[in-house]
Amino acid sequence: MDNRVLVALSGGVDSAVCTVLLKQSGFEPCGIHFVMHGADSDADSAAEAARRMEIPLQVLNLTDEFDKTVIRYFVDAYKSGLTPNPCVFCNRNMKFAHLFATADKEGIDKVATGHYARIEKCGAEYLLKKSLNAAKDQSYVLYSLRREWLSRLMFPLGTLTKDEVRELAHGEALPNADKPDSQDICFIPDGNYTSFIEARCGHVKESGNFLDMKGNVIGRHDGILNYTIGQRRGLKTGFGERLYVISKNSADNTVTLGHNSDLFGKRLSASSVNILVGNTLPESMRVCAKVRYSMKEQPATVFFEGNKRMTVEFDEPQRAFTSGQSVVLYDGDTVIGGGIIE
Questions:
Q1: CATH architecture for residues 4-171
Q2: What is the pLDDT of residues 180-200, one digit of tens each?
Q3: What's this model's pTM, rounded to 2 decimal places?
Q4: Is 186 labeled as catalytic in the residue annotation?
Q5: Which CATH class is domain 264-341?
Q6: Residue 288 known to be catalytic
Q7: What are 220's strand-pairing partners?
Q8: Fold of the domain built from segment(s) 205-258
Q9: Cα 111 to chain centroid, rounded
Q10: What b/e readout covers 324-336, taking b as 16+ CB neighbours within 10 angstroms?
Q11: pLDDT tens track for 96-107
């Protein structure tokens, strides 16, 4: 019996403990580290962890492909007025795609990562489920995975807390036991999206009009790249009242401002829908849904429009639907699927 498992070793503590748990369960982990971008400084950490755990490690340089796919997607989306989630896009189109491609090439059936989520078999189906640790659950950024991958996926950390992971790492004397969690977008470590995009494409800030909810010009902005839906701080102008970014329009370079109450809505449309359960889609179904990573799922009804579009109607108004972000659907702790908010 082939007990090999291809493990994505990022260089952080989660993927290292994932590997330890696999070894303890009788598997034979084979590590792989992807170098995705120039800001990647974790290859040495991944190699050190692999040596400590006595497992083989291959390093795959994907910087050119990452640049042409994930970074280009991110930049183009931002320039068009969207607020993209590159992690969702990367998981499907880069990270897991290359994990499974490498596993197939090596003749390895199982693939594992250090994500906080779970895979459970239910009858003939394999389901993606939330982590038992709600504070670290990462199922939101995994909804875009291909359904056929689920039967081969392993998430050993799905029942653990972060404290338990670090305790296990210390017990194994792993060199990255106290390594801080990564923050923000991996290829923009300082979190300054605007500067990154300007440096990337020479995109000059183009000032434009602030509009009120009636379309009246009420001021000037510094370029739509500088604003996100729901933003209040940094508007750099005195309107005599507290206003928020309600929407952006790249076509006429305008930013619409309004009151906090204007940010709330019950209905959204989504495209690029990916469904992970069932054989046929009903016209509609009751779900719980969330429109950002940190949000608690809320009761809603989803109306499917073919295989790639849907409308989600929440029972109660929700704040700041953001075009380019993801809406993810749940049935209890099972991920039904999700899509990109329009």
A1: 3-Layer(aba) Sandwich (3.40)
A2: 887 778 899 888 988 899 888
A3: 0.95
A4: yes
A5: mainly beta
A6: no
A7: 209
A8: SH3 type barrels. (2.30.30)
A9: 19
A10: bbbbbbbeebbbb
A11: 999 999 999 999
